[in-house]
């Protein structure tokens, strides 16, 4: 084993390999001065919609814009409650707050770290009541209507969507998928007896193309996908100051357009996304084999039979994360924590008056999760070194050999 540095994420190699194609995008934009909108944006939107098995894609400036616009477009109103999970990036709840709604939370499944459908049902049955006249769920403590659910597809794996969608249909709730970490992830619906792509199951979905995502821009970018023409049209208005055509403003909107150059970069990368995702699955499978025998000391990612993860992250649980992370850093192995602070306990939301222990599964996970190096091109030799150092720190002496 060498002492080479192993990055948590390698963004250099992929851009070096695609440099010619990416430079061609830039040259095209410079020659025609098409920097906002136009054929590069439309071309990416068309192909990404097809990739997601969705009817429409609306490119926007960021994943946060995508979430905000999707919430507005499906009809979430100021003063409403939108339910999500506490173990997600703050953009999920920022988008809720920024449309004038109030974020609330339900706990997650202990194996997948994604929204637990049973906890959602308990929330609606025990913390809310049904108004038969308005056909609305009313939150008991605040008297506010609950209007939408944002299940977060986390670490590259989708939420158990069948029961979530059934519950939301029963309670007349909109579903906005937070698919920011799940480009290409799939879910097998027992109800439909087929696989569905992330971004195709809810009333709308939000994607982030932050550079480190499986499909990442060379800067900021995002998209909304939907099967609803009205939702798509509203998102188009919202991203461009409410303009139906230049200087004709149907509504007040935002400056949330997707740059044409970023759309062109994403269009180039989209062609490579399926093999990149497959490489991530292979990397995850090798990790699983290398960690065989470490059960009880290292908790590996759990992929249910209904999921095809794209492993945006490879997240393990260990007892003493700080010590392990420091020791890996000492031998030049990059790691991450996604996420160290559950949102209901963060300072930004102290006004919502949540307490430690309100969502114990998410809180426990936040204290123990560690993201190991994960990217296409991560070699078996590099993975063997990562696993050797992890087990050494945890006082486990052997490394399993993955079969060919």
Task: Report what the structure shows.
The chain has 404 residues and is of the alpha/beta class. The chain has 2 domains: 12-270, Aspartate Aminotransferase, domain 2, CATH 3.40.640; 273-393, Aspartate Aminotransferase, domain 1. The protein has helices at residues 12-17, 19-32, 39-51, 63-73, 91-98, 117-126, 161-170, 229-239, 260-270, 273-290, 321-330, 360-368, 380-393; strands at residues 56-60, 81-84, 102-105, 128-131, 136-139, 145-149, 174-178, 186-189, 194-197, 204-208, 222-226, 243-245, 248-249, 307-308, 314-317, 369-372. The strands form 4 sheets. Strands 1, 2, 3, 4, 5, 6, 7, 10 and 11 form a 9-stranded mixed β-sheet that branches. 45% of the residues are buried.
| Quaternary status | single chain
Rg value: 22 Å
- CATH-wise, what's the superfamily of the largest domain? Type I PLP-dependent aspartate aminotransferase-like (Major domain)
Give me the CATH architecture of the largest domain, please: 3-Layer(aba) Sandwich
Which helices and strands occur, and which strands form pairs?
Blueprint: H1 12-17, H2 19-32, H3 39-51, E1 56-60, H4 63-73, E2 81-84, H5 91-98, E3 102-105, H6 117-126, E4 128-131, E5 136-139, E6 145-149, H7 161-170, E7 174-178, E8 186-189, E9 194-197, E10 204-208, E11 222-226, H8 229-239, E12 243-245, E13 248-249, H9 260-270, H10 273-290, E14 307-308, E15 314-317, H11 321-330, H12 360-368, E16 369-372, H13 380-393
């Amino acid at each position: 084993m060498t002492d080479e540095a192993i990055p948590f994420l390698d963004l250099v190699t992929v851009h070096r390999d695609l440099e010619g194609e990416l430079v061609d995008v830039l040259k095209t934009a410079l020659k025609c001065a098409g920097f906002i909108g136009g054929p590069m944006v439309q071309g990416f939107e068309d192909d990404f919609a097809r990739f997601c098995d969705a009817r429409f894609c609306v490119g926007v400036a960021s994943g946060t814009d995508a979430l905000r616009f999707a919430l507005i477009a499906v009809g979430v109103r100021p003063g409403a409650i939108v339910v999500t999970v506490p173990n997600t990036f703050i953009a999920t709840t920022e988008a809720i707050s920024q449309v004038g709604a109030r974020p609330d939370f339900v706990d997650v499944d202990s194996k997948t770290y994604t929204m637990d459908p049973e906890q959602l049902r308990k929330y609606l049955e025990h913390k809310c009541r049904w108004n038969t006249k308005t056909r609305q769920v009313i939150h008991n403590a605040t008297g506010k209507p609950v209007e939408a659910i944002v299940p977060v597809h986390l670490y590259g794996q989708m939420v158990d969507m069948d029961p979530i969608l059934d519950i939301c249909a029963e309670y007349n709730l909109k579903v906005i998928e937070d698919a920011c970490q799940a480009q290409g992830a799939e879910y097998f619906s027992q109800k439909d007896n087929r696989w569905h792509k992330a971004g195709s199951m809810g009333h709308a979905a939000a994607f982030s193309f932050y550079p480190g995502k499986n499909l990442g821009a060379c800067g900021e970018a995002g998209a909304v996908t939907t099967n609803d023409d009205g939702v798509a049209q509203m998102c188009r208005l919202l991203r461009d100051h409410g303009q139906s055509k230049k200087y004709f403003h149907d509504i007040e909107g935002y400056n949330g357009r997707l740059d044409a150059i970023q759309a062109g970069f994403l269009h180039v990368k989209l062609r490579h996304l399926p093999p990149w995702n497959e490489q991530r699955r292979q990397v995850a499978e090798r990790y699983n084999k290398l960690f065989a025998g470490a059960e009880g000391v290292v908790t590996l990612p759990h992929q249910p039979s209904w999921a095809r993860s794209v492993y945006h992250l490879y997240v393990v649980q260990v007892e003493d994360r700080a010590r392990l992370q420091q020791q890996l850093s000492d031998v030049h192995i990059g790691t991450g924590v996604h996420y160290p602070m559950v949102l209901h306990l963060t300072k930004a939301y102290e006004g919502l008056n949540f307490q430690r222990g309100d969502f114990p599964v998410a809180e426990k996970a936040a204290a123990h999760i560690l993201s190991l190096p994960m990217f296409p091109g991560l070699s078996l030799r590099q993975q063997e070194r990562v696993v050797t150092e992890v087990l050494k720190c945890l006082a486990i002496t052997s490394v399993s050999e993955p079969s060919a």
